[in-house]
From TrEMBL:
<dbReference type="Pfam" id="PF00561">
    <property type="entry name" value="Abhydrolase_1"/>
</dbReference>
<dbReference type="InterPro" id="IPR052370">
    <property type="entry name" value="Meta-cleavage_hydrolase"/>
</dbReference>
<feature type="domain" description="AB hydrolase-1">
    <location>
        <begin position="76"/>
        <end position="190"/>
    </location>
</feature>
<protein>
    <recommendedName>
        <fullName>AB hydrolase-1 domain-containing protein</fullName>
    </recommendedName>
</protein>
<feature type="region of interest" description="Disordered">
    <location>
        <begin position="43"/>
        <end position="74"/>
    </location>
</feature>
<dbReference type="InterPro" id="IPR029058">
    <property type="entry name" value="AB_hydrolase_fold"/>
</dbReference>
<dbReference type="InterPro" id="IPR000073">
    <property type="entry name" value="AB_hydrolase_1"/>
</dbReference>
Length: 335
């Protein structure tokens, strides 16, 4: 029997290729490979694997030694980092289309999502951030604006903290700078979940329905067949992903808010039940004057899926603003 969720992936891949993106396997080191959707000037139509010993590919040049890039050099680079429930192309399927004509778009799959894998035992968000940075370096990206959702937002914060020369700005939704014991405990108690693994890695239809129910503002009905197909496809690498969740947790006593050099937009669903808008307001105060907050009405945790037009509109305004500011257009956000 055809899996409905699996069946849509070839269509989604075709749409992304029609938009000018190509899938690339970037070998960061032996045993660690990151899958990235990237602008087509990096590869041929059938894709390729970029190894650590492939400087020509890392510089964004076409195989065969051509010195000319097909992508306009004036385009800014934008990186979209997915959350915990799906890999990059599935997460951003309603969003990449409005960005791809103006920006060089990069959509990585984090380790143990999609086709990305590693032999390393490191499960921390710092490691995920280092892998993203390594893949971008192999693709010749020296400066970029990063967009992160949920788990991807935590990775984005780590990337911005560790590599300020790489990350120019951040746009984060439904996330925290760090998942402390206190934040995790309060969140699980409020949602009635025993643990983050129980909530985010459901094994039953009931568990998946509960996850989607708290993730969206508007209750949506799907047939059980849809949920069963989703469970089979989206929650693979269960052992490793549970280890990733454990790798997120840090002691509340050890938690410190970094001083970020970047401008940061917190783009939030006002009805987010997982990380509510009050938490976002507190984060804004902690992150200082370079941080902005915009709430989207009638949207929950999955705001980019639930209200993609509103999300895309604000994301485009943010990216236009940071590009204008970088070009000397001023410091006041128009978002």
């Amino acid at each position: 029997m055809v899996n409905f969720i699996e069946a849509q992936k070839p269509l989604l891949s075709r749409l992304m290729k029609m938009a000018g993106l190509r899938p690339i396997e970037v070998e960061l080191e032996p045993g660690t490979t990151m899958h990235v959707w990237a602008p087509k000037h990096h590869v041929g139509k059938k894709g390729t694997t970029i190894s650590p010993l492939d400087p020509a590919a890392a510089g964004g040049k076409k195989p065969g030694g051509s010195k000319k890039r097909r992508s306009p050099e004036s385009r800014p680079n934008v990186v979209l980092i997915h959350g915990f429930a799906a890999e990059g192309n599935v997460t951003w399927q309603f969003n990449f289309g409005v960005l791809v004509s103006r920006y060089n778009l990069y959509i990585p799959d984090l380790m143990f999502f999609g086709k990305s894998s590693t032999a390393s035992a490191d499960r921390s968000p710092d490691f995920q951030a280092a892998c993203v940075a390594g893949a971008l370096a192999r693709l010749g990206v020296a400066r970029c604006d990063v967009v992160g959702f949920s788990y991807g937002g935590m990775v984005a914060f780590k990337l911005a903290e560790a590599r300020p020369e790489l990350v120019r700005s951040l746009c984060v939704s439904g996330s925290v700078v760090a998942m402390t014991d206190a934040v995790n405990r309060e969140t699980m108690e409020r949602l009635g979940a025993g643990s983050s693994a129980e909530l985010l890695m459901p094994e039953t239809l009931k568990g998946l329905k509960a996850l989607l129910s708290i993730s969206m503002y508007k209750k949506m009905w799907f047939p059980d067949r849809f949920y069963k197909d989703y469970l089979k496809v989206m929650f693979t690498n269960r052992k490793e992903r549970m280890e990733l969740l454990q790798g997120l947790l840090i002691s509340t006593m050890d938690a410190k808010i970094p001083v970020f050099q970047q401008k940061i937009m917190l783009l939030w669903g006002e009805e987010d039940k997982i990380f509510d808008i009050e938490l976002a307001k507190k984060m804004k105060e902690q992150l200082g004057d370079k941080c902005f907050l915009y709430g989207i009405r009638k949207a929950g945790h999955l705001l980019h899926v639930e209200r993609p037009c509103a999300y895309n509109r604000q994301l485009q305004r943010w990216l236009a603003y940071v590009n204008s500011a970088a070009a000397g257009g001023g410091d006041k956000a128009s978002c």
